[in-house]
Amino acid sequence: MSDSSGWYYCLTHQAVEQGKGCKGPDRMGPYPDEATAARALEIARERTRAADEADRQYRGGDA
Question: What digits encode the pLDDT tens for the residues 17-60?
Fold first, then answer.
């Protein structure tokens, strides 16, 4: 049975959830599929690194 409300990564339980689950502040998503939700922390680290690099570039390369 499929739930169309997306996949999430629960920070409290460190587990993937589909549809309704833990409270919104305790989870990341929605993601399009279970495999992507399982990579939520890795995706967040990649996005943080990219944002940090963009900030360095914006400030002239030093920071």
Answer: 999 888 989 999 999 999 999 999 999 999 999 999 999 999 98
CA dihedral 21, 25, 31, 34 (to 10 degrees): -40
Specify the pTM.
Answer: 0.78
State how far the Cα of 28 lies from the Cα of 47, in Å rounded to an integer: 13
CA 23 vs CA 13, 17, 28, 29, 33: distances in Å: 11, 11, 10, 12, 19
How distant is the alpha carbon of residue 58 from its chain centre?
Answer: 25
Amino acid at 61: G
List C-alpha distances in Å: 1 to 21, 34, 36, 43: 16, 14, 19, 27
